[in-house]
Amino acid sequence: MGVAPGPARYRSNPVTDNPNSSAGEVALVGAGPGDPDLLTIKAWRLITSAEVVLYDRLVSPEILALIPETARRVHVGKQRANHALPQDQINQRLVDLAREGLKVVRLKGGDPFIFGRGGEEIETLAAAGVRFQVVPGITAASGCAAYAGIPLTHRDHAQSVRFVTGHLKNDTCDLPWKDFVQNNQTLVFYMGLVGLPIICKQLMGHGMAPDMPVALVSKGTNPDQVVVTGTLDTIVERVKAHQVQPPTLVIIGNVVSLRSKLDWVGAMPELSESKPG
After folding, report:
1. Which of 17, 35, 37, 56 is catalytic?
2. Which end of the chain is flanked by fewer CB atoms within 10 Å, N or C?
3. Are 188 and 164 in contact (CB under 8 A)?
4. Distances, alpha carbon 221 to alpha carbons 26, 145, 173, 227, in Å
5. Catalytic-role residue among 17, 35, 78, 263
6. Could you tell me which residues belong to the region Disordered (predicted)?
7. pLDDT at 251 over 90
8. Per residue in 44-78, pLDDT tens?
C-alpha cells in the first residue's frame, strides 16, 4: 500500500512560531533540469497548491503548466546581463508576499542550493521571521549526465566529481585551474557555453591532455536536448559549428567516452565527432 505524502514541514524558530508573525509561508522548490517526470512528489504537491509562484527562466513550460490557474505567476528569471528582477528585490518580494498570508513557491531550475542562490533567499526569509522550507531538486549535473548516457563517476574512470560555475565574470580566469587537472576526476561546468574557450584553454595550459573527452549538453532532459562531444582541443569549434543554444552543461573527463555505449536516450539528436550532422 502506498503512503500518502505527509504535511509540509517548515523551519521552526521562536520568531516564526510567534502568533503575531506572518501566516504566510515560502517553499523554495527545485524544479530539476526540465523533464516534469523528474519532479519530487513534494515539489509537485507544493506547485499545484501554490497561491503565488516566483519562477526562473530555466523552469520548463511543462512544469509551469502545473501551476494552478488561480495562482499569481511572477517571472524573476535572469539571463546574462539581463535580470528581470535584481536578487535583492526577489528576496524582498518573497518576504512581502508571505506577509500577505500567501502560500508562496519560489521555483528554481535544478536544485536551489547548487548555483541557485537559494541560500541568499532563505537568509532573508529567516531574518524577516518568515516560515520557509526547502525542497531539493535534481541538479543539472545529475539530470543532464544521466540523459546523455554519461555516468559522472565510474570505478574505472573517475572516483570523484567536481561542480564548477562556468559563468566567468568579465572573462576572468580566477579559478583554481591547477586543482582541476587531476587523474580520475570528472569536471562539470554549469553555464559554461560562453566561457568554454577559456575553460578549454586554461585546462590544457595547466597540463590536461588535449584529447581529454568533453561533452556539452544543451537543454538537457528536455525533448530538444542536444549533446555535442569532442575533446578539449576540438569541442569549441564543434559547438560553434552547430550553434548550440543555452542552457548548457559541460562535462569533462574520461567518463564521457562511455557515452557511445551507454546512451539510452538514443532517439535524441547527437552531434558527435563521428556524426557531424
Report:
1. 56
2. N
3. yes
4. 27, 9, 30, 11
5. 78
6. 1-25
7. yes
8. 999 999 999 999 999 999 999 999 999 999 999 86
